[in-house]
Design a protein that fits this description.
Blueprint: H1 3-13, H2 24-38, E1 45-50, H3 54-66, E2 72-79, H4 85-98, E3 102-106, H5 111-118, H6 125-136, H7 146-152, H8 157-163, H9 181-187, H10 197-214, E4 218-221, H11 229-234, E5 239-240, E6 247-249, H12 257-267, H13 273-276, H14 294-304, H15 306-336
Parallel strand pairs: 1-2, 1-4, 2-3, 4-6
Antiparallel strand pairs: 5-6
Length: 337
Amino acid sequence: MRLYDKLEEFLRSFPTGPPDGISFEIFDALVKTWSILRGATPYPRIMVALSGGSDGDITLDMLERIGHPYSEIRYVFYDTKMEFAATRRHLDFLEQKYGIQIERRDAKVSVPLGVKRYGVPFLNKRASDYLFRLERHGFQWEDEPLEQLVEAYPDCRSALRWWCNDWGEKSRINIRRHRWLKEFLMEHPPDFSISDKCCSGAKKASALEAEREIAPDLTILGLRKAEGGARATVYRSCFDSVSDGPDRYRPVFWFRKKDKEIYERVFGVTHSECYRLYGLKRTGCACCPFGRDFEAELAAAKQYEPNLYTAAKHVFGPSYEYTRKYHAYVRSRECAS
């Protein structure tokens, strides 16, 4: 029996909440997704972005398990050119398991090309963006009052406010969010370009290009709020109604780790070897310095995919060394304080 039949039973038999063994978050996501795919006004054309990651696996399983007889679904994968071979094998597995086709699209700007053009990622997207702006304006890593710095660098106020912790005492935007980072940058200024634009070109620009070509009525992403990161903090709910583009839906947005584990067990979801064999906690752009566990990804690549390991060191090498130097600096300052 397909899940949508069971969902109809859910709606009739459990009007006040989920059945035993299914968390409220899973039940709620199933009902919402059923309503979107099989409700009174289903979307004719849907685009689903897949990365080969675990959140996307659950999203895909939910969509195909419910069924979408009134909607054409286009599954899309953006190849950043920094991908685990295990991810590519997993896409093949998903196609065979669900009887679907996943479009492999080359990134509008591949990660290696983006790094070459703009600079390497460092720490996270926000920090890399502000450091990119400061470097572009020839900033000298000075510890001066904001207004004095704005006078010296008049077209860089937002980044300077970050540098001077001017976004509010408790703001997470300020540079003080990263312990000792300002002091580290003043003592060890970067001698290479830093930027977050490799991610923008490989993912965001690629998604916009695909949306223009496919012209979906709805875009679906496997994104969880609990996962954190810049994308998750932008959204407040699982659904956005958009007036000048496709609506956006995130079926697993409210899933916590335990909800994922329940769904995987109940519905038999299989993840890629990146999780099952390599022992990684995430997938995506392989060995990206933005990842908190990039060292684990590098170790896995070295053991299982040595060509990727060599490529990652070539593309991201300066960021790896600078990040390690920063972490060592933090440890030394904390020990001395």
